[in-house]
Amino acid sequence: MTGLQGKGAFVAGSDKPERSTVRVGFMPLTDCASLVMASVLGLDEKYGIRIVLSREQSWSGMRDRLVRGELDCAQLLYAMVYAVELGVGTAQKSMALLMNLNQNGQAITLSRALAARGAVDGAGLAALMANEARRFTFAHTFPTGNHALWLYYWLAAAGIEPMSACHVATVPPNQMAANLAAGHMDGFCAGEPWGERAVREGVGVTVATSQQVWPDHPGKALAACADFAQRHPNTCRALVCAVLEAGRWIDASAANRETASEAIASPAFVNVQRELIRERMLGCYNDGLGHRWHDPHRLRFYGDGAATFPYLSDAMWFMTQHRRWGLLAYDPDYRAVAERVNRLDLYREAAAATNTPLPSTVTRSSRLIDGRTWNGRDPALYAASFAASSHA
């Protein structure tokens, strides 16, 4: 703990973590990197805890283990946190969102067969579907999760009604490319490295990144059940401190991103070849159609604090999309729910301890792929502004 005195580190006295070992669930995805590196680099020990990582096999399984208390915290789909809080598709459980883990870095992939027929973007897909008698099948990773909402938003922006014009399936992320190759679906939305795998194996093409849908969108969240956060605030704060430092380390240089790619590619974590993670981790994209670019909105884990801050407007957006697609049957008090779930108090204390910059406001303004601006000012009006066919 040398050198931490006077810098806000919570390591002793009344601020000592209530629990020295923290069981944290994660999914084998590129964006588990800051959780993994917090442990690998020993940053957890710096703040008086030991992170015990638990590799999970499905989002629903990890959610259920968290709710049952078998995990203390978990890397959850941001939208899933709010589905649990509101009892959407599952039993209601009060939740605590401790921080955002990352921004950007997901992808929408279509089969190479569709791309060969002109479906290389939303407009091309819409034109193809208009002349087909069958309903196309698209997959996401969880019904109330981020990937479902990115997929629906992208389809709708192209004039495709997801709920009536498509079959939608839930598939584990690491099975996406195989199912696409087998012809079980026409496309999918998932986190990396599974979009990259589809491109490298020649079975799919990247027609959109999630950052094209919403530049610098929120990604996975570090979450706990509200009762755990209530009983263990110092433990949660220490965990956020460690993960903030890990995110800052990853974002600090290309060399660090290379090292993180190698670490998380190992069998204990994502269990893939390093090159499958490395390229898009560095922001180097190949869409499988001959187009290569360096994405200015690549996956990021810190972004001078902008990528980790739990903006209330981010939380409210996911609830508006649950409402839009009929997953949520009523308009909640969006702001009040976001203020209750997003633990800004713990995050701000962790930010002070790690010298992480804080934004000037708890909401932000963003322009999405369909030209709409989201700023969190009137969530109910925003949710209702979408076409009636997509709003329950």
Annotated CATH architecture of the largest domain? 3-Layer(aba) Sandwich
What is the terminal-to-terminal distance? 53 Å
Find the CATH topology of the largest domain: D-Maltodextrin-Binding Protein, domain 2
Q: What is the residue-mean pLDDT, rounded to a whole number?
A: 94
How many domains in all?
Answer: 2
Protein name: ABC transporter substrate-binding protein
InterPro entries: NrtA/CpmA_ABC-bd_dom (IPR044527)
Keywords: Cell inner membrane, Cell membrane, Membrane, Signal, Transport
Subcellular location: Endomembrane system
List keywords for this structure.
disordered C terminus, alpha/beta, five-stranded mixed beta sheet, 14 strands, membrane, 392 residues, D-Maltodextrin-Binding Protein, domain 2, signal, cell membrane, 17% strand, 2 domains, transport, cell inner membrane
Short structural summary:
Residues 1-8 and 388-392 have low confidence and may be disordered.
How is this fold's topology laid out?
Layout: E1 21-26, H1 33-40, H2 43-46, E2 50-55, H3 59-68, E3 73-77, H4 78-86, E4 95-100, E5 106-111, H5 112-116, H6 122-130, E6 136-140, H7 146-157, H8 162-165, E7 166-170, H9 176-181, E8 187-191, H10 194-200, E9 204-209, H11 210-213, E10 220-225, H12 226-231, H13 233-251, H14 254-265, H15 274-281, E11 284-286, E12 292-294, H16 312-324, H17 334-341, H18 344-353, E13 366-367, E14 373-374, H19 379-384
Parallel strand pairs: 1-2, 1-3, 6-7, 6-8
Antiparallel strand pairs: 3-10, 4-10, 5-8, 5-9, 11-12, 13-14
Helix pairs in contact: 1-13, 1-14, 4-16, 13-18, 14-15, 16-17
